[in-house]
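Researcher: Re-running this chain for the archive, since the previous output was lost when a drive failed. Same request as before.
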Amino acid sequence: MSAKPKILAFAGSARADSFNKKLVKIAAAGATKAGAEVTLIDLKRYPMPIYDGDLEQANGIPEPAAKFKKLMIEHDGLLISSPEYNSSISALLKNAIDWASRPGGEQEPPLAAFNDKVAGLMAASPGALGGLRGLVHLRAILGNINVLVLPGQRAVSKAHEAFNEDGSLKDAKLQEAIEGIGAKVAKTLAKLRS
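Model: Regenerated structure tokens:
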């Protein structure tokens, strides 16, 4: 591992003006302030076909999925902001997780992109629960594939009213809490490495 904890940050949304993209940037800033090296990515730049075992068998892991998986392997922790679609996570996010979980060869351990990662979760939604129901599913998925998901999470309700023009949150305490998720992942990784 590098001298600083390395954290990969992304949202499970492809929308250009996504509330979750704004939210994960805030958490990423908190992780950076806490001493981590953060890589913020947009899943839209990694267009992956819907996972299909026949496609994988015929052609291997598609290049965008392989690039995403490589980034996952290269980082120690994750910051994920997940939109809620029909009380669960987005197809985009689930598909990215599914492709990253695929084995990369005999030399690679199973679930290499997820083993021993530390994750911080958050959500933003126009709804009253702020995406909380989707986080329950995301936590379960990640926990089942060897990710240590930190207990503190936040869901931002009425997200269409929550952000300032500059992307910060109007509620200063909520801004601090989201930054705190990033900081907690960074600090937890630092403790685990010491």
